[in-house]
Amino acid sequence: MESPVDRRKALKTIGGLSAVLAGGAAAGVAADRYLRSGDSAARTEKPAPALATAKPSDRARGHGMITWAVETRKKLIALTFDDGPVPNYTPLVLDALDEEKVPATFFLVGRTLTRNPKILDGRIDRHEIGNHSWLHKSLNDLGDYEAVRTDLTQAHEAIAKITGREVRLLRPPFGHLGAVPMRVADGLGYRVVLWSQGVVEASFQKDPDSVIPYVVDNVTPGTIFLAHDAVNTYEPVFLRRLGPIIRQLRAKGYEFVTVSDLMAEREEGATLITTKG
Ligand SMILES: [Zn+2]
């Protein structure tokens, strides 16, 4: 049974997520509706020059897809960690994942990676990595197609140089998405990944162990789970309890996979369970 406190926390999380997804949904509609939709472009009454300046060299498909969970009957979960790599907590996360021999997906900030180029050395063979932008600013606020493209390309190239990998997943900072970032992601061949569940470390500072049942009781098949390995202001209660959380989820039959492996498990007709009961 989930306690009233847990339910409040869960609702808070879901409320936050729906706000994010409402922003993300704007990406899928026509540009004219986007401009009337009340987002920053509409408020500042700027035109959308970005939509006319896509690089001819970009091989766009002409549409975009956002994944925040995967329809599957299998008990699969993809843990994701954003904003690193940083010296204080990324190794802690990697140690816990090594200990339990589970893969995860790290969405790297290009500038942060460039400042800490050695942290991932020899440690990410099992894991997937993705682009979390160069500056970690909302892509909606960067400007036109060229500005967003420059930011994402700079991160892409830094990740390639330092890790030797060409990444294909994009998680936009703060989950903010509009028509321009979606079109750039399409032009660069990225798949956009958000999340269906996650933890806010600040919520568990007074009762750190409550983060364990909060996660274990609420995960559902096909979950893409958001966490951060770069935590500045708060004690990283979730990161420090990764081991028991992984073990308890395993005891419930869950298997841990990367985001790409999870997306490959999509089953036609499987019902996506995004909330309990
Ligand atoms: Zn972030």
TrEMBL record:
<dbReference type="InterPro" id="IPR011330">
    <property type="entry name" value="Glyco_hydro/deAcase_b/a-brl"/>
</dbReference>
<protein>
    <recommendedName>
        <fullName>NodB homology domain-containing protein</fullName>
    </recommendedName>
</protein>
<dbReference type="GO" id="GO:0016810">
    <property type="term" value="F:hydrolase activity, acting on carbon-nitrogen (but not peptide) bonds"/>
</dbReference>
<dbReference type="GO" id="GO:0005975">
    <property type="term" value="P:carbohydrate metabolic process"/>
</dbReference>
<dbReference type="InterPro" id="IPR002509">
    <property type="entry name" value="NODB_dom"/>
</dbReference>
<dbReference type="InterPro" id="IPR050248">
    <property type="entry name" value="Polysacc_deacetylase_ArnD"/>
</dbReference>
<dbReference type="Pfam" id="PF01522">
    <property type="entry name" value="Polysacc_deac_1"/>
</dbReference>
<feature type="domain" description="NodB homology">
    <location>
        <begin position="75"/>
        <end position="257"/>
    </location>
</feature>
<dbReference type="InterPro" id="IPR006311">
    <property type="entry name" value="TAT_signal"/>
</dbReference>
